[in-house]
Amino acid sequence: MTSMKKAEQKIVVLTGAGISAESGLSTFRDNNGLWENHRVEEVATPEAFDRNPDLVHGFYNRRRQALSEVKPNAAHLKLAEIEPLYQSFLLVTQNVDDLHERAGSQNLIHMHGELLKKRCVLCHQVSHQRNDLSVESICQYCHQQGTLRPHIVWFGEMPLLMNEIMLALMQCDLFVSIGTSGTVYPAAGFVEVANQSGAHTVELNLEASEQASQFKESFHGPASSVVGDYFN
Ligand code: OAD
């Protein structure tokens, strides 16, 4: 464990689906590799959207609707509570739910996009979205029909704000990874960048992830308890 006081530390926290599991949202690699009964290639690739936009819109509409049935758990709340205690604190999430912001986290990057946003493929405007999207939806900016897609990073697409994330990783003293299987790059490679920057690196996960051997410390258990224990 680093001997620096929190107020002197720069910290980057990475979260994955495991932090939202106890709120009632499915992780990706449970259920024989199916996510809410779909293979990822059916719903989470640009090719799937080109092939069957109704299916993909329907899938993300259901994920968006499900947000109103869940709430942040103790792990989300703990991260929001400790944020002001650090010299700098960046929370990078792979999750597309809004539980971190509902818990009160401020300096937050959704590297894989957000369910509550849409994007126009024609004019590229990103805007908030609460209701369902369909091929009939009309862009409020360029007024074209059928040009809106979920603002989600699909497989084969570039995650968002990578420059900011890499800069923070290269400058951090502490990197903590929570509830992620460490199988999807570039997020799976963040621990290596943090190690090379001389940071202390910690994994908090239900079980050892694929990257577990790269972390200097690991604590295993449900996020609602390990996150609280670690940051107390
Ligand atoms: P995964 O489903 O791959 O991994 C979730 C991890 O959380 C696993 O290692 C579980 O053991 C762990 N876990 C489950 N319940 C937990 C709990 N209560 N407390 C702590 N840990 C728990 O999800 P991600 O790693 O987030 O990308 O997946 C990464 C990316 O792959 C996702 O962002 C998504 C997906 O395909 C895109 O959609 C682009």
What can you see in these coordinates?
- The chain is of the alpha/beta class.
- The chain has nine helices and nine strands.
- The chain has helices at residues 18-21, 40-43, 46-51, 53-66, 74-82, 99-103, 162-171, 190-196, 223-231; strands at residues 10-15, 88-93, 108-110, 113-120, 126-128, 148-152, 174-178, 200-205, 217-220.
- The chain has a six-stranded parallel β-sheet, sandwiched between helices. A three-stranded antiparallel β-sheet has the order 5-4-6.
- Strand 7, helix 8 and strand 8 (200-205) form a beta-alpha-beta unit.
- Helix 5 (74-82) packs parallel to helix 9 (223-231) and helix 7 runs parallel beside helix 8.
- The longest helix is centred in the N-terminal third of the chain and has 14 residues, at 53-66.
- It is globular.
- Residues 16-18, 21-22, 27-29, 40, 44, 94, 112, 153, 155, 179-181, 183-184, 205-207, 209, 222-223 line the site of 2'-O-acetyl adenosine-5-diphosphoribose.
- The site of 2'-O-acetyl adenosine-5-diphosphoribose (OAD) has 25 residues, from helix 1.
Distance between the termini: 13 Å
Radius of gyration, taken over Cα atoms and rounded to an integer in Å: 18 Å
The helix fraction, in percent, is: 25-40%
Instruction: Tell me the β content.
Output: 15-25%
Mean pLDDT: 95
Number of helices: 9
Bound compounds: 2'-O-acetyl adenosine-5-diphosphoribose
Question: Can you tag this structure with a few keywords?
Answer:
20% strand; 9 strands; single chain; alpha/beta; 232 residues; binds 2'-O-acetyl adenosine-5-diphosphoribose; 3-stranded antiparallel sheet
